[in-house]
Structure to design on (382 residues):
């Protein structure tokens, strides 16, 4: 317990430091976590089949890993670089070239790994090798397809990364304490120590924390401002309506001794309740899934990278589920449509084409049915 507490304190201190350093450093942290998660999962398979290890397969695993990383982050990184190097024409052309050929490069690297795998196939080991090939792709899907949404959340504003991650941590801690002191009724067979009392207590705590934390974090531009490039300087932006407090009159049945007659609430606090609800009800099932997986393969933890906590995968199971939801929720209900010059031009061109099509149809109809009013009718339509 003491080791676990020390590890938690060190992780919290490091996390706060990276939040202070900014978007690029948090992104680097996510990449490091992904590398450790992949390492733990790759090692897990090798430990289960030590007597049948194949020479060079570890290198092939990492070849596919870094190819997936280049595919996942390449285009996003290039877009951020474009905004960073606009003043340098040579670098700007280079980055645009990377954007243009990034998918081809990734495809070529993947095909190279595919050929490498086929060449290394050995008689009497086909089934095992193909199972490893499939396992490698499942690892990459789990590590990148979910946790990579975290990077998009970071650059939309650290708020959209920090709040969901904090809610998962709060829910985990609250579930432990409520379960320890009040737990009586088992929640799910996959995790015998989980109780309904802990689940309900953690849910209430997480919802309240979401509402309060959203208000606290919403006052810091460093957390709320999106970043469009790879710079690390301080940010200044218009907080926008999402982080602008609105006054709400309290109902008349409030007691006279209550000191306030109205409260100021940021609109983002209502959205935070939705995040808190998901973190309380759905995200824990990521942990239950991991528990079931570990029971199926009969091991306690995914690794031992974090003293007292197991591996990074053990800590990130719920976080990955939460990161995907936070991204989808932000894109669906929070994000304001960004009308870039390109988007506006596309809409103008599309509208112009529609007008021309309408005029042409009008002319044809007039010729066929009413030649005398052709000119006035079609001019009016234009």
């Amino acid at each position: 317990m003491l080791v676990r507490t020390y590890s938690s304190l060190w992780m919290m201190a490091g996390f706060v430091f990276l939040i202070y350093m900014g978007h690029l450093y948090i992104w680097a942290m996510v990449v490091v976590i992904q590398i450790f998660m992949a390492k733990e999962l790759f090692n897990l398979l090798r430990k289960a089949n030590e007597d049948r290890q194949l020479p060079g397969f570890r290198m092939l695993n990492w070849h596919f890993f870094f190819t997936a990383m280049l595919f996942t982050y390449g285009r996003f990184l290039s877009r951020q670089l474009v905004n960073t190097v606009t003043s340098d024409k040579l670098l700007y052309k280079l980055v645009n070239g990377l954007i243009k050929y990034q998918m081809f490069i990734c495809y070529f690297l993947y095909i190279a790994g595919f050929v490498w795998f086929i060449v290394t196939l050995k008689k009497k080991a086909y089934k095992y090798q193909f199972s490893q090939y499939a396992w490698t792709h499942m690892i990459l899907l789990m590590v990148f397809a979910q946790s990579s949404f975290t990077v998009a959340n970071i650059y939309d504003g650290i708020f959209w990364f920090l709040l969901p991650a904090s809610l998962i941590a709060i829910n985990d801690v609250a579930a432990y304490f409520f379960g320890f002191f009040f737990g009586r009724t088992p929640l799910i067979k996959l995790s015998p120590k989980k109780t309904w009392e802990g689940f309900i207590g953690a849910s209430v705590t997480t919802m309240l924390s979401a509402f309060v934390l959203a208000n606290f974090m919403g006052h810091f531009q460093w957390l709320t401002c999106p970043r469009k490039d790879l710079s690390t300087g301080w940010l200044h932006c218009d907080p926008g309506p999402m982080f602008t407090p609105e006054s709400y009159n309290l109902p008349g049945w409030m007691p006279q001794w209550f000191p306030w007659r109205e409260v100021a609430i940021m609109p983002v606090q209502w959205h935070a309740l939705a995040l808190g609800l998901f973190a309380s009800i759905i995200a824990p099932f990521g942990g239950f899934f991991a528990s079931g997986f570990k029971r199926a393969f009969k091991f306690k933890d995914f690794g031992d990278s974090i003293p007292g906590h197991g591996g990074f995968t053990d800590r990130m199971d719920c976080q990955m589920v939460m990161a995907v939801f936070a991204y989808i929720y932000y894109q669906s209900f929070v994000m304001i449509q960004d009308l870039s010059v390109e988007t506006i031009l596309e809409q103008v061109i599309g509208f112009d084409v529609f007008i021309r099509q309408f005029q042409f149809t009008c002319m044809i109809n007039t010729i066929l049915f009413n030649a005398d009013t052709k000119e006035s009718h079609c001019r009016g339509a234009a």
